[in-house]
Amino acid sequence: MNLESELERLKKELERARFELSVFYEITQAMRSTLRLEEILYVILTGITAHQGLGFNRALLFLVDFENKLIKGKMGIGPVSREEADKIWKWIREEKKELMDLLKEYHRIKERKPELFRMVEELAFPLEGSDTVLQQVFSEGLPIFIKSHQAAGLENDVLVKKFDLEEFVIVPLWAQDKIIGAILVDNFVTKRPITPSDIKILNMFSSQAALAIENSKLYEDTLWRSHVDSLTGLWNHGYFQFKLKEEFDKNLQRDTPLSLLMIDIDNFKDYNDKFGHMEGDKVLVRVAEIIREESRKTDYPCRYGGEEFSVILSGISKKDATSIAERIRQRIEKEEFLRRITVSIGVVSFPQDASDRQTLIRMADNYLYQAKAAGKDRVSTGK
């Protein structure tokens, strides 16, 4: 190799190093802008797949659920077909989207959830096992680089089949002394070969990503604990007020209904006085469980205070909310305690019963006391 060629090679390596440092800086700054896990994951995967980032076609991220000993798919960014890739790249060109612009697209992506995102979310694997290449990464703790000819021999691997993988890399996400997740990348569309330099920069990036994820999980765990009632596990009064405002504003903007249940255990003081507070706590915990079980996944069951509970039901009519309230009432009535336990429930809806949040709460209380006055163990809708 002559001197001119060597200088040219060194120049290219220097340009590549400068580019990598620039990418690291931008993505690291973006990761520092939020502590919310879903946003952090989106920043990581966008940094990996953006042309101005690491430039891979697709990135899939998995995290460990240590409690259930599972590897769960959390998020995927990238196309599932050449046609989709062309649409994405055309949009980026026409809109002149830079890396920071793409990082701001999280809420739009979250709303519509592209196909790859949904496909990854559906996945879960036992943590202890080696049936898949992904599980192998967790058991060995090392990156795995699969070339095309090797992938051909993995036709029974779930990930290879589901995502039509050819050449790909999986890197573990190490946080302190444990693996908390893994990232899989490939060039599904362009077929650009993955180089040792690509793997090196991906490994460096994964260290920063793991740290950001771990910090985010600690933050969200602390935040969750501050919003949850320690006895029942339902959302507490403070979170009820916050979420009701958020959901009310959202439904007001969308011109969709919002319903609210206010639930009170009948004669609870008498129960406590007769059987003691430990038995009373058992009632509160079981009633909370029933309320949670009968609520939709999109609802917000809360402990309003004492023996009073509430459920925020976004985008649901008063009629449907009343049906849920009646199911809750009937299940509690049939539950076996030391003495028969019943509840009274008030049901209100926006905009049918109230035009603002505070009136909604007040009317729910009014209907609850109507149920009490009418003999308890019933649902009142104000009629």
Give a quick rundown of the structure:
The protein is of the alpha+beta class. Helices cover 53% and strands 18% of the residues.
Structure write-up:
- The chain is an alpha+beta fold.
- A hairpin with a 4-residue loop joins β1 and β2.
- α1 packs parallel to α10.
- It has 15 helices and eleven strands.
- About 35% of the residues are buried.
- A six-stranded antiparallel sheet has the order 3-2-1-6-5-4, sandwiched between helices.
Binned strand content? 15-25%
Regions with pLDDT < 50 over 5+ consecutive residues? Answer: none
| Mean pLDDT, all residues | 86
* Estimated radius of gyration: 27 Å
Largest pleated sheet: 6 strands, antiparallel
Shape: elongated
Order of neighbouring strands in the sheet with most strands: 3-2-1-6-5-4
SS class: alpha+beta
Number of helices: 15
End-to-end CA span: 91 Å
| SSE arrangement, N to C | HHEEHHHHEHEHHEEHHEHHEEHEHE
What proportion of the residues is helical, as a percent range? 40-55%
Please give the number of β-strands. 11
Topology:
Blueprint (H helix, E strand, L loop, with lengths): L2 H29 L5 H13 L8 E8 L4 E8 L4 H14 L3 H5 L2 H7 L2 H7 L2 E3 L6 H8 L3 E3 L1 H4 L6 H6 L4 E8 L2 E9 L9 H32 L9 H18 L3 E8 L2 H8 L1 H18 L5 E6 L2 E7 L3 H17 L8 E8 L6 H17 L5 E2 L3
Parallel strand pairs: 10-11
Antiparallel strand pairs: 1-2, 1-6, 2-3, 4-5, 5-6, 7-9, 7-10, 8-9
Helix pairs in contact: 1-2, 1-10, 2-10, 12-13, 13-14
